[in-house]
Description:
Layout: H1 2-16, E1 34-37, E2 46-47, H2 51-71, H3 87-100, H4 105-111, E3 113-114, E4 120-125, E5 132-137, E6 143-147, E7 151-153
Antiparallel strand pairs: 1-4, 1-7, 2-3, 4-5, 5-6
Helix pairs in contact: 1-2, 2-3, 2-4
Amino acid sequence: MRAAFMLGALAVAFMASAAPPEACTLDNCNAGTPAVTVNDKQDSNYACPTRELATYTSTVLSFAIIGASIGGMPNISDTTGEPEFTGNTKNIVDGLRAAAGVSSFDEAVAMCAPIKHNRHVTIINHPSNALVVYVVDSKTKLAYWIPLSSLDKLK
Length: 155
């Protein structure tokens, strides 16, 4: 299953790397900020056509990383392709999946594309306190939503 492989690869990448000093944050990367994408071969971050898809995929991946770092790799649901969450986490993920209009992580990923490393982009929409931003690629002129954590601010 593609989702299980990607979640595992992401967990390994997270534990092996540190945040770069110029990483975009909620405070330093607003609309109009030039940035560069950060996504190496071990990362599994996605560029998505809608804010809802980007929020859902990045949240599932983030929760999986957190879970893997504190308790090992969780079971992956054969229904949703997500880690088998419980309680409030399950409620949050269920709500994000519904908002994204998909029934599984694999369905969401199929609508998105892996973020290409080292692409120059400009942030064109950074909703207040959102962890995903809308960017336009300087080379392709395509716009898409990606996690803020996948960007380094250009000087």
